[in-house]
Amino acid sequence: MAGEVLLRLLLLGLIGKKTTLYLTFVIESINILFLYFIFFLNVMPMLCCTGVVTPQVEKPLYPKAGTESTAIDDGSSPPITLQRSFVYFGRAYDKIYVNHNGHLTFNSPYSSYSPERFPLNGPIDIIAPFWTDLDNREMGKILYNQYTSGMVLQKATQDINTYFPNLNFKAEWVFVATWNEVAYYPNSRTKTTAQAVLISGGQNSFVLMNYGIIASTSRKVQAGYDTINSEHHYTLPGSFSSAATGSNSNFRLSSNVNVPGRWAFRTDNGTTGCTFNGEPVQLGDSFWSDSTCAQKCTCTTTGLQCSNQPCSFSQVCMPDSFQFSCQSVQRRTCTVSGDPHYYTFDNKVFHFQGTCTYVLSEQCQNELPYFRVEGKNEHLGSTRVSWTGLVKVFVYNETIELVKRTTGKAKVSKDTSLNTS
Question: Which of 118, 197, 274, 400 could cross-link with 393 by S-S, CB 3.0 to 4.6 Å?
Fold first, then answer.
């Protein structure tokens, strides 16, 4: 037919006083024209946004050298005999496995390519600088090496005494595992570099996680560590989110020791954790302190640290296993297209040729901010055929009109008569 109007409504959630409405209105005729509108609470309308892309560097990495693991998907190194025992939260290990999907284990190889959120509450001690589905068959190398003397030990001694002062620490052994410019599965030709550095000396042991270039991916990534029964665990901020990868990866740009791209942890016996309202909190655990999710608290080696960090516009505050957490709201799509066809949020389909004004979506819970989206149909060259000619969005006492054959423009006006009660 001569033209088609496609309306897509992406409602990410109406959360307290926070509403996010994603509206995409597409007018198709000879050319396809796209108009994108994003509305945020108290910052509406916002028509574009910019960001700063930080150049990626490899400054925090230890030497990328040593034995190369076999190029095999979901593989592991053979058992590596350690030249010094490594104490990992009270358990001394004499061997280790470098697993190709971005993690280290001690008792056996671990081929899992699908990351799981820490804490696992399982029977495994694991160090995971970058747990995701990696593929070293054609791109990149997985390397490991041990050091008992030389410049690497001097560097490790200096680093640990900087990050953990008053220990008077002297490194006696360093193990470096590097996933160097490895691709995401399957042979994606991307390049991602991550590193785990195990350091021991005397009764003390430490783990460094270093990050170089991190390619962007839609895959989930878990970074951090976990222990048997999750007595001790930590998740790097950005895990299981879009902030894990790409040029603005939180792993690479942030740090817990003020060195971007490096994260340092003491792992010999750990700490006793923290308490909140008399209840124990494990080291590394985070939670929101009440049902408003206004304040996020994290148990650190220096105690419980809390700061104002409310849920984002695409999240809702919900009860969790401990206190509360910000949880993502599921997306649903409503589509109107053709002459015309209606695809509802619950995936039902309707077809009819009416030429009235129809409510496509509307607020239905009184405690949420009011919104309504209307579509007005008109005849298409014949009284037997209709299509959508006008779309109106009512939100926060504003009316936004999207009109057929109006390229790159929308009409925005106040509507003081709109009932928002």
Answer: 400
